[in-house]
Amino acid sequence: MLIFVIEVVVKLIGYGFSSYFLDKGSFFDFIIILASLVDLAVSINDKNDKHARILTVMRIFRVLRIFKLS
Length: 70
Prior knowledge:
Order of helices and strands: HHHH
Distance between the termini: 20 Å
Structural class: mainly alpha
Largest sheet: none
Strand content: under 5%
Shape: elongated
Number of domains: 1
């Protein structure tokens, strides 16, 4: 996941903030990375599994990123 975060940061620096978010693929990547970071933070801070449904949805979005490549 760190590689994807670095990719987003480099693309934000390279394209600029407004140009980066005009591209639908980059915007989708940003949302997936943001959801993954939230998922990671929640799973670290919450030891019981009461947020499992939300985390499952976030993981599904991460899988969708793979399909964007094809």
